[in-house]
Design goal:
- The complex is a heterotrimer of chains A (317), B (280) and C (593).
- Chain A has 317 residues and is mostly helical.
- Helix content of chain A is 76%, strand content 0%.
- Chain A is built from 13 helices and no strands.
- The radius of gyration of chain A is 24 Å and the shape is globular.
- Chain B has 280 residues and is mainly alpha-helical.
- Chain B has a single domain, classed as MetI-like (MetI-like fold), CATH 1.10.3720.10.
- In chain B, 71% of the residues lie in helices and 0% in strands.
- Chain B is elongated and about 80 Å long.
- Chain C contains 20 helices and 22 strands.
- In chain C, the strands form four sheets. An eight-stranded mixed beta sheet of chain C has the order 6-7-8-3-9-10-12-11, sandwiched between helices. A six-stranded mixed beta sheet of chain C has the order 18-19-20-15-21-22, sandwiched between helices.
- In chain C, helix 5 crosses helix 7 and helix 16 runs parallel beside helix 17.
- The longest helix of chain C has 18 residues.
- Classes of the chains: A mainly alpha (317), B mainly alpha (280), C alpha/beta (593).
- Chains A and B meet through helix 1, helix 6, helix 7, helix 8 and helix 10 of A and helix 3, helix 4, helix 8, helix 9 and helix 10 of B.
Chain lengths: 317, 280, 593
């Protein structure tokens, strides 16, 4: 177990290094370079040179890379060109909003997908499973911004029950928890539905597959009833793909869905990324891509380790 | 949001009905994108200020937008630009992914390790995030969009092809062919291609759907197809920006068309898969 | 004494392609306490369906006819809740492939204890103590240390013992063992068999032992029931049955089982009919040498003689079973073809990307010479390195040491010469389905080596394919089919035809018959032997089955843990084994009580 953990950790570190390198060069080798992005395509060579010097962009590429790494290691992610604030500080402000929003959505979505997947696996081939399958296919093919738009039209515009955008009511100087919750309702519903649709499909598939395995027949031959088989045998084994997928969705807990946050104008990290992309605020973009990459690698690592606990064979290869 | 292109590889009893429905829908979407614009000749860019934001009527079958442009004409020309970018992008992604996967799957071990490590990193970044990153850095011409979408959405397929090739590689019939003097190229072209063909075709359909979705999302965010061109995603966005006025005729049709396109891809892929599993 | 299990006219229909297809008819048998009854048949005979039917574990939609009396209680139509109370408590079952049949993510103590607690109640600690007792009883060494191990941490044979311990948890009156030794090599299979035989005596338990392996049950079974195409063809006391089988099918089946030193095996023409296409009269009639007109029309009567019953119009006279064929031909002399000197193979450890660790050698210091036209047998248990030897000879993997074909060192050849040399070394693998590309036609598969070799026109290749098919006893029409549409035996013949296509100097047979039924294996081994003699082929015949190897090989090499511990003429090896391990192999392969 220890050896495996160490190996995975080492492998993740290598991935991280490659990622960091890749992001740096991606950002620097784009046509025009960052200075043009800031000053616009009509910038004069003189103003570009001045900016490059101010930002340290006139150094040799390897030196820039070294400097950049050094700053990165000390948590200095640079300044936002446009907002002129330290990127790290900006990220954290938006991060808090996203964390609440996404953790809640994924929690609800996972709970839903457990129920749906279990039902789908057990009643495979019969109408409840078909119904769930139609739900999954529908949400696979439905773009999230379309679903969000429909929810806004229906619940915010037609019925007027819930606010359509923002995080609290701007007119209210002391927004309470209720206002916060009302603003969260539609975005959370959107993300939870999509999470449930995609996770439940994999989980239902896994439950169905596990139910067909030999050890289930053995349990039946020893006198175990359906409930005991499901809870004591199948559930644990079927959870493994779900854990892997949850690991993959781990970065979203921090970044949020760019699309959902932008539809609902919810000031989270995804929204920040969108705004920065529109205004070509490149230190923020780089920082976000970097943070997401790191979190994804960590998420994969966590999922691997959790699966090692769920399945003794994993730690044994 | 979406985990690669292996989705829908489930074993649901679909039979040929799914395939037929998928192909039918695909036909409908292609018709809207490539043929209908010629059958409905109204100019999408003609402005009728007096008729701004009207619901569907005899004159404007799908109503008008806030500038008084014909929504149906906009929808059809938006369909054309969506498909004209998404389809080549999907093809590019497919070719890149398949080539990369075969190279890793059949090449020597060191190449495989290097390519897979790179792939891990590429897969570590959610596609949409990378798209946004690059879309922000380059001008969003149609050609750039094709290159962007194409060069970003291949890693899923590459991994799939590589795993499939690796799994097949140690199989006895491959060993027997090698013993008879088969080269790597022969193995790839004669043996593996036949085994992997279903996976490739099925994934090609899924990738087409994904390309349409990614492009629509990008356009919805304002970083895709640029004005004066419209696309389904940008149309939906401009409809939604008027949400307070409840212009459902501007939001529903582009949303439903994207939905139809993705449904077509998913059902065609699923249908092909089940019919292949049936005869294998 | 009243029987523990009694089947009266048991019939089973399964849903196949939307119809109810009868797969089992009129099965009647009784097993007394302490008795071991063997249910023997080839794949498709319905033996596993019988076992599952007794436990009422058949798939949904199965229809049952007749009675299943478990200690006098008819459970053929019992409710699911009643069955739950009986399963594991009064009747338990041991399945094949315990790696899949045990839950991979729970410890063995938890799985054994669960059965006990389910039926007897009781606490965690008591269940653990019970599991410990049971593991000791089934012969797991140091059971206390293994309680918290997972199934994958046990070896194949030990895993099956865990499964047996689980079945014994509530001291059932009836134990059903469905092919419990499948996948184990003969010594381990024999040990499991002996364990079950001992347990049934000590616990006075009835055992229904389901198997395809007649040689395995010969020593321990009390009663035999032979199944063919869903019907019982012969049944009765085991001793009398093995002394003189009376149904032509049982007699042929017994003759198809390889015995040590046997020169030729019996093979049965034709193949088992599908359940949808079973003949109306005697189901064996189309393949039977003794069949007359009436056999095709009417159901044969049960012919009782002594302690056995044969369902046959013309049973064989109750004469003693034909003795085994005489000792093999005198040693032949061969000019050398392939010389191996100091061959060692090491596999790199998997997974390590930081430098490469090397594992203990899979093969070490092998030296031998293969003669032209010779068949050299290689036997050993799984993990002994026998397949590695085959792959090294085929030049599929890297090795240390020297190997030369017709005096030319294979390692020192130019790449082109080496490719040409490899073409003359051809493999036949264990699993015929795995060795044929499922998406290529049979004709294309056999022509492939010719195509790669070049120099033949399309028509010439087609003619050659036809000739090769004829050599392995297949009709030319099969060339147009896909591997999915041929039987296992046919698939293996196709693989042989492909191996013969480039005109090989040496054919490496890696367990060529082990994935097949006894009678199909017999046919295949006979075919290989004939082809070898006719074309002067050289074989390297790798198998865990010493008896099968001894029917073909001129000399036999015994491998253990990567080393060759003995190499001798077949007859000499069987008569005077020098190594203790060889003696154990011979004991495991020897028939009779």
């Amino acid at each position: 177990m220890m050896a495996m953990t160490a190996r995975r950790l080492a492998s993740s570190c290598l991935s991280l290094f490659i990622l960091v390198t890749l992001v740096f060069f991606m950002a620097h080798l784009t046509p025009g370079g960052p200075a043009y992005s800031i000053l616009g395509q009509k910038a004069t060579p003189a103003s570009v040179a001045a900016l490059n010097q101010r930002l340290g962009l006139d150094e040799s590429l390897p030196r820039q890379f070294g400097l950049w790494l050094w700053h990165l290691l000390h948590g200095r992610l640079g300044y936002s060109y446009l907002l002129n604030r330290p990127v790290g500080q900006l990220l954290w402000v938006y991060e808090r909003n996203t964390l609440v929003f996404y953790a809640l959505s994924i929690f609800i979505g996972t709970g839903l997908s457990l129920l749906l997947g279990l039902a789908q696996g057990v009643w495979s081939g019969r109408w409840p499973a078909r119904l769930i399958g139609a739900f999954q296919l529908g949400f696979y093919a439905m773009p999230s911004f379309f679903v969000a738009a429909m929810l806004i039209l229906w619940f915010a515009v037609d019925l007027g029950w819930l606010p359509a955008s923002g995080i609290t009511d701007l007119r209210d100087p002391h927004p309470g928890l209720a206002s916060f919750a009302a603003h969260l309702a539609l975005p959370v519903a959107t993300v939870a539905l999509f999470t449930a649709a995609s996770l439940s499909r994999y989980f239902g598939e896994a439950v169905h597959e596990e139910l067909g395995k030999d050890y289930v027949r053995t349990a039946r031959a020893m006198g175990a009833g359906p409930a005991a088989i499901l809870l004591r045998h199948v559930l644990r084994n079927a959870l493994r793909p779900l854990v892997t997928l949850l690991g993959l969705s781990f970065p979203y807990i921090f970044t949020g869905g760019v699309i959902v946050e932008s539809v609902f104008n919810y000031p989270g990290l995804g929204w920040l990324m969108w705004r920065s992309a529109l205004s070509q605020d490149y230190p923020i973009l780089t920082a976000i891509v970097l943070v997401i990459g790191i979190l994804t690698v960590l998420g994969n690592l966590l999922a691997d380790l959790a699966n090692g606990l769920l399945d003794p064979r994993e730690s044994y290869e | 949001m979406r985990q690669g292109v292996t989705s829908w590889l489930g074993r649901r009893p679909g039979r040929h009905g799914t395939l037929a429905a998928g192909l039918g829908l695909a036909g409908l979407v292609l018709f809207c994108g490539f043929i209908a614009p010629f059958l409905y000749p109204a100019d999408p860019y003609a402005i009728h200020p007096a008729q701004a934001l009207r619901p569907p009527s005899r004159l404007f079958p799908l109503g008008t937008d806030e500038l008084g442009r014909d929504a149906l004409a906009l929808l059809l020309s938006g369909g054309f630009s969506t498909l004209a970018v998404a389809l080549p992008a999907a093809a590019l992604a497919f070719l890149t992914g398949a080539a990369y996967g075969f190279a890793a799957g059949l090449g020597p071990l060191w190449l495989d390790k290097a390519l897979m490590r790179l792939l891990d990193v590429a897969l570590a970044l959610p596609g949409l995030i990378v798209l946004l990153f690059f879309a922000a850095l380059v001008p969003q011409t149609n050609l750039n969009l094709i290159l962007l979408l194409g060069l970003i959405s291949w890693p899923g397929l590459a991994r799939l092809v590589r795993n499939e090739a690796r799994a097949q590689r140690g199989r006895d019939f491959i060993l027997a062919a090698e013993q008879a003097g088969a080269s790597r190229a022969y193995l790839a072209l004669v043996h593996l291609s036949r085994i992997v063909a279903p996976v490739l075709v099925v994934n090609a359909t899924f990738m087409t759907g994904d390309a349409i979705l990614s492009l629509s999302a990008l356009s919805f965010l304002g970083l895709g197809v640029q004005p004066p061109q419209e696309s389904w995603g940008s149309l939906l966005e401009s409809g939604l920006s008027l949400a307070a006025l409840n212009p459902w005729w501007l939001i529903l049709p582009p949303g439903l068309l994207i939905f139809a396109a993705l449904l077509a891809a998913a059902m065609t892929g699923q249908g092909l898969l089940t019919s292949w599993q049936g005869d294998a | 004494m009243s029987p523990v299990l009694e089947l009266k006219g048991l019939g089973v229909s399964l849903r196949r392609g939307g119809r109810d297809v009868p797969v089992l008819d009129r099965i009647s048998l009784a097993i007394a306490p302490g008795e071991m009854a063997a249910l023997v048949g080839e794949s498709g005979s319905g033996k596993s369906v019988t076992a599952l039917a007794v436990m009422r574990l058949l798939p949904e939609g199965a229809l049952l006819a007749g009675q299943i009396l478990l200690e006098g209680e008819d459970i053929a139509q019992a409710s699911e809740s009643r069955l739950r109370a009986l399963r594991g408590k009064r009747a338990a079952m041991v399945f094949q492939n315990p790696l899949a049949a045990l839950n991979p993510t729970r410890t063995v103590a938890a799985q054994i204890g669960e059965v006990w607690r389910m039926h007897e109640g009781g606490g965690r600690r008591a269940a653990r103590a019970r599991a410990l007792d049971l593991l000791a009883e089934v012969g797991i060494p140091d059971p206390a240390a293994r309680l918290d191990d997972y199934p994958h941490q046990f070896s194949g044979g030990m895993r099956q013992r865990v499964m047996i311990a689980m079945a014994l948890a509530c001291a059932p009156r009836l134990l059903i063992a469905d092919e419990p030794t499948a996948g184990l090599d003969p010594p381990r299979a024999r040990q499991i068999m002996e364990l079950l035989a001992r347990l049934r005596r000590e616990r006075d338990m009835a055992v229904l032992f389901v198997t395809h392996d007649l040689a395995l049950v010969e020593r321990e079974a009390d009663a035999i029931h032979v199944l063919y195409a869903g019907e019982m063809v012969e049944w009765g006391a085991a001793r009398a049955f093995f002394a003189h089988p009376r149904h032509p099918y049982s007699e042929a089946l017994l003759g198809a089982v390889p015995h040590l030193g046997q020169a030729r095996l019996r093979s049965i023409p034709g193949s088992l009919p599908e359940p949808e296409a079973r003949p109306p009269g005697c189901r064996f009639a189309p393949r039977c040498a003794r069949a007359e007109e009436i056999c095709g029309r009417a159901r044969p009567p049960a012919d009782v003689a002594g302690n056995t019953v044969a369902a046959c119009f013309f049973p064989l006279p109750a004469a003693a079973r034909a003795g085994l064929a005489a000792a093999p031909a005198p040693p032949r002399v061969f000019p050398p073809l392939l010389e191996i000197k100091g061959l060692s193979v090491r596999y790199p450890a998997p997974g390590g990307w930081l430098g490469r660790r090397r594992l203990a050698p899979a093969l070490e210091g092998i030296s031998l010479t293969l003669g032209r036209g010779e068949c050299l047998g290689v036997v050993g248990e799984s993990g002994s390195g026998k397949s590695t030897l085959g792959r090294a000879v085929l030049q599929m993997i890297g090795y240390e040491g020297e190997m030369s074909l017709e005096g030319e060192s294979l390692a020192r050849m130019t790449p082109a010469a080496r490719r040409a040399a490899r073409r003359r070394l051809q493999p036949v693998f264990q699993d015929p389905r795995e060795s044929l590309n499922p998406r290529m036609r049979v004709g294309e598969i056999i022509a492939e080596p010719l195509r790669l070799q070049g120099g033949l026109s399309r028509a010439a290749r087609a003619a050659r394919v036809e000739a090769l098919l004829a050599q392995v006893g297949l009709s030319a029409a099969i060339a147009a089919r896909y591997p999915g549409a041929v039987s296992g035996g046919q698939a293996q013949r196709i693989a042989i035809a492909r191996a013969l296509a480039p005109g090989p100097a040496l054919v490496v047979l890696d367990e060529p018959g082990s994935a097949l039924d006894v009678s199909t294996q017999a046919m295949l081994l006979n075919l290989l032997k004939d082809l070898g003699r006719r074309h002067g082929l050289t074989y390297l015949f790798i198998s865990h089955d010493l008896a099968a190897v001894s029917t073909m090989a001129d000399r036999i090499a015994v491998l253990r843990a990567g080393r060759m511990i003995e190499l001798a003429e077949t007859a000499a090896l069987i008569a005077q084994p020098r190594h203790e391990y060889t003696r154990a192999l011979i004991a495991a392969a020897a028939p009779g009580p």
